[in-house]
Amino acid sequence: MTTTYDPTHPRYDDEADLRAEMERVFDLCHGCRLCFNLCPSFPTLFDFIDARDGNAGAMTPAEQDQVVDECYQCKLCYVKCPYVPPHEWALDFPRLMMRAHAVRRRQGTSVKERLTDQFLGRTDLLGRLSTMASPVVNAVTGRPGSWPRVAMEKTVGVASMRLLPPYARQRFTTWFAARRSRPGPQLPGPGGEASRAAGAAGAAGGAGSAQGSVSVFPTCFIEYMAPEIGKDLVAVYEHNGVACSLPEGTKCCGAPWLHSGNVSEFVRSAGRNVQALAGEVRRGKEVIVAQPTCAYVIRRDYPVYLEHTPLADDARLVAEHTADPAEYLMRLHRGEETELVTVFPGRESGAVPDEITYHVACHLQAQNIGLRSRDLLKVAGVKATLVQRCSGIDGTWGYRAENYDLARKVAGPLKTEIEKAGHTVVCGDCHLANGAIEQETGLRPVHPLTLMARAYGLHDGREDGR
Question: What is the domain extent for residue 406?
Answer without folding.
Answer: 343-455
